[in-house]
Write a structure and sequence with these properties.
This protein is mainly alpha-helical. The chain is 74% helix and 2% strand. The protein has one domain. It starts with a strand and ends with a helix.
Length: 263
Amino acid sequence: MSIIHGGAATPSYRHSDRVRLVDSDAPLGWLEAGWRDFLASPATSAGFGLVFAVVGLALTVALWRTPFDYMLLPLVSGFMLIGPVATAGFQAMSRDLENGRRPSLGSAFSTLRANAGPIFWAALAFLFLFLIWLRISELLFALTFPAGAALERHEMLRAAFLTIGGLEFLALFALVGLVFAVVAFAGGAFALSMLVDRPVGAAEAIVASFAAVWANPRAMAVWAAFLVALTAAGMAVAFVGLVVALPVAGHASWRAYRAVIRP
């Protein structure tokens, strides 16, 4: 961990000199700032959020109509793994607001293009993590879910919650999912913000994000809980809530970056 000297963090591991230490109640202020950013550009933010809501709803409906609807839970939970990538555009909008410019989709895409290569590689890394999660979820289902259970939805729910094999599957699913979620959050909490803000490489940004999370475990635990609750609430109402929840999370993530990562 970093040591405090005069309000600054003394480097004790890689990139710790870039990190500020923050209180555990700081995430509430980031959310409030994110909400203000959303209100400053509601049409643009909500319009961009609508794209993700429509895509999420379309994927869910399409999967629901196939024999593979048991993959809905991994798909929905896996959205948290690629969440940092989805918020990059909103962070670019917050950067414009910070610099006194009117946010727009064109301006956001221009900001992303300025460091397009590293942003692409970071997005690819999180997508790869997401695909690994889907594959592991399939393996967990095949190896632990009761073999005799029918694939009808009501029978699957009964087997999941009322059989030993089903409970074993749920426990392993939650445990492995938590590991993936921690890795994705630690690597993505500040990486995309750095890539939007400055000309650094994907690996450097991800490592710096890990350093920032490691230096502020309590604040980051609270921040992760806020982001999960916000995203889950948005997805709970047929993804429609993401029109607001995702932009607020993205704008707030930019404010978190400004508070934790040194210029």
